[in-house]
Specification:
The structure is a single chain. The protein is an all-alpha fold and about 90 residues long. The chain has 2 helices and no strands. The chain has helices at about 15-35, 50-85. α1 packs antiparallel against α2. The radius of gyration is 20 Å and the shape is elongated.
Length: about 90
């Protein structure tokens, strides 16, 4: 469907950056909801059973993934604002 002359074109809703953002935010949920993958004692780390240190590791990983998703979202929004005004 042709657009009217002078009508502003909207950027696509699904972009590679947004897919990466979704994966960053979904990964911790998938990893921690799949309990069968980490419901074991070994390998222990400094005496802490795998079940516990695996979950604590995901606290740090989730923080890093959320920070990455936020930075990507900021960059995506800046590019959309910059592209819309041009």
């Amino acid at each position: 469907m042709p657009q009217e002359p002078g009508a502003a074109q909207r950027p696509p809703t699904v972009t590679p950056a947004r897919v990466v953002i979704a994966l960053c935010l979904a990964a911790p949920f998938v990893a921690l909801l799949w309990v069968g993958s980490y419901a074991k004692v070994d390998p222990a780390f400094i005496g802490i059973p795998f079940f516990y240190w695996y979950q604590m590791l995901w606290v740090v990983v989730s923080t890093l993934l959320t920070m990455l998703a936020y930075k990507l979202w900021q960059r995506d929004q800046r590019s959309r604002k910059g592209g819309a005004s041009a």
